[in-house]
């Protein structure tokens, strides 16, 4: 039976005319709650210029694609009713003064983390894949860690920051890395060791609770899943589905390696941090650190290495052909960072760049 997959996408709320980020999440969420049949798929985020939706767990990638399109369309509708638009952008291209959301938790974060929290207006994509147990989940975490920077490069969609080109493909990853628990972590070895590490982090008093364990990939505190959190929100919804497909392939492959007694690759956290930095800097436009050799390789070669690594799992789930097509499409047109820069080069306007991204988000 195929593992289920769920996606959480954070979306930027923007003014339809100016392209500037707008602090309207409370109004959008109120409209979503009123229209919801049952529990709403939308949730608040740290800043009022963004909203998040979560899909239901799906075993079929076609079903997941339909769900992503549906909730993006709902987000567009709710935002329009509130006088705004939504854009699947991982940072605001135009200058913005972010507004912290309401609620005691967000107030605590603002006071505790200061400018780090205030400037943290970034939008990511989190992929949940079901696992049979915490032990299997931790075995997966230990075996996918070397491949996570490739997912960041694939999804990179945040070249602009406060009105200028950051010269990164994913500047969100640099901003997100300011949180004290963010980034890659060591091999855990067992579920017992994983939970001990989480308890130790919380015990320092630096983190409020388990929800603030912002590892690149972690055990979900709410669901029986592995949660991969390294990616930018993708501009094109087809890339979201490709990302989810590859994550499930990585989870399946890692679980098989664990059951076969294959140990995780022995790579230091410092090397993985460097690989993630390069992925955020280059995206798909230059070289990446190859997860096997830990040496520079052209981005297309590393993408193909990822596909080869999960090939058997994708064949078994029936996703290989679709993944190959989707990966070829990304290589041809580029990820969100390349598309944003191409729009800016064509129009000369960040406002027009946001407007075009609003249209792509709703496509």
TrEMBL record:
Enzyme Commission number: 6.3.2.2
SUPFAM superfamilies xrefs: Glutamine synthetase/guanido kinase
One Pfam family named in its UniProt record: GCS2
Keyword Metal-binding in annotation: no
Domain of life of the native organism: Bacteria
Function of the protein: ATP-dependent carboxylate-amine ligase which exhibits weak glutamate--cysteine ligase activity.
HAMAP family tied to this protein: Glu_cys_ligase_2
Protein name: Putative glutamate--cysteine ligase 2
Organism: Streptomyces anulatus (Streptomyces chrysomallus)
């Amino acid at each position: 039976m195929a593992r289920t997959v769920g996606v959480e996408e954070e979306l930027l709320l923007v003014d339809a005319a100016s392209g500037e980020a707008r602090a309207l999440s409370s109004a959008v969420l109120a409209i979503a709650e009123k229209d919801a049949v049952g529990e709403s798929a939308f949730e608040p985020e740290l800043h009022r210029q963004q909203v998040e939706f979560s899909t239901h767990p799906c075993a079929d990638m076609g079903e997941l694609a339909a769900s992503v399109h549906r909730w993006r369309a709902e987000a567009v509708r709710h935002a329009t009713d509130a006088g705004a638009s939504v854009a699947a952008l991982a940072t605001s291209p135009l200058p913005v003064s972010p507004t912290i959301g309401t609620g005691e938790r967000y107030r605590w974060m603002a006071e505790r983390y200061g400018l780090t929290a205030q400037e943290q207006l970034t939008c990511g994509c989190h992929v949940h894949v079901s696992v049979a147990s915490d032990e299997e989940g931790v075995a997966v975490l230990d075996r996918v860690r070397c491949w996570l920077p490739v997912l960041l490069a694939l999804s990179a969609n945040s070249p602009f920051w406060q009105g200028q080109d950051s010269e990164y493909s994913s500047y969100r990853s640099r901003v997100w890395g300011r949180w004290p628990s963010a980034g890659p972590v060591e091999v855990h070895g067992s579920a017992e060791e994983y939970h001990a590490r989480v308890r130790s982090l919380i015990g320092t008093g630096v983190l409020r609770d388990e929800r603030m364990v912002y590892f690149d990939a972690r055990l979900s505190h709410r669901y029986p899943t592995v949660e991969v959190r390294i990616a930018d929100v993708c501009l094109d919804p087809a890339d979201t589905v490709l990302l989810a497909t590859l994550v499930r392939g990585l989870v399946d492959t890692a679980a098989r390696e664990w059951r076969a007694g294959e140990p995780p690759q022995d790579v230091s956290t410092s090397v993985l941090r460097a690989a993630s930095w390069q992925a955020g800097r280059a995206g798909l436009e230059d070289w990446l650190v190859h997860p096997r050799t830990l040496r520079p390789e052209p981005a297309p070669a590393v993408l193909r290495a990822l596909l080869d690594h999960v090939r058997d799992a994708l064949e078994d789930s029936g996703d290989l052909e679709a993944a190959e097509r989707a990966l070829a499409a990304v290589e041809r047109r580029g990820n969100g960072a390349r598309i944003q820069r191409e729009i800016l080069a064509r129009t000369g306007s960040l406002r027009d760049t946001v407007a075009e991204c609003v249209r792509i988000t709703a496509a």
